[in-house]
Amino acid sequence: MNNSTDRIEREIVLKAARSRVWRALSHAEEFGGWFGVALKGKTFAAGQAVQGQITYPGYEHLAWNVVIDRVEPEGLLSFRWHPYAVDAAVDYSQEPTTLVVFELIAVEEGTLLRVVESGFDNIPAARRQEAFSMNSGGWDAQMKNIEKHVAAS
């Protein structure tokens, strides 16, 4: 784990083929299922904005908004978003975004999933530490979520 205040890094070895993990990441509806966002009928394509209603308990009043950055089949998926944008009364659109990168690497045990979210140093100082802290815990939970998801199928 990196001690930087600008980036969160997580890794997990999933006992699933890279093609299976890729499907869990790149198919929007399936991604939403384990990530906690309603993405029925949505797709992920580079340059495309994607919105969905958050389904995670306590956050259902919020929309999930990302712009897909890169899609490299079975290797890398990335998007930009406003980290921990949870106050419905705040317009985060003028703030810088962070970049979330999912990287897949085939390993003997299955697939190494590396997630890096970077760019926190550019987030307004008034909310930077909370966004970093909350997303750090969020990525811990999401790594468990995808692990359960790919193991169940």
TrEMBL record:
Residues 16-150 form the Activator of Hsp90 ATPase homologue 1/2-like C-terminal domain. Pfam families: AHSA1 (PF08327). CDD domains: SRPBCC_CalC_Aha1-like_5. It comes from the Bacteria. Belongs to the AHA1 family. This is SRPBCC family protein. The lineage of its organism: Bacteria, Pseudomonadati, Pseudomonadota, Betaproteobacteria, Burkholderiales.
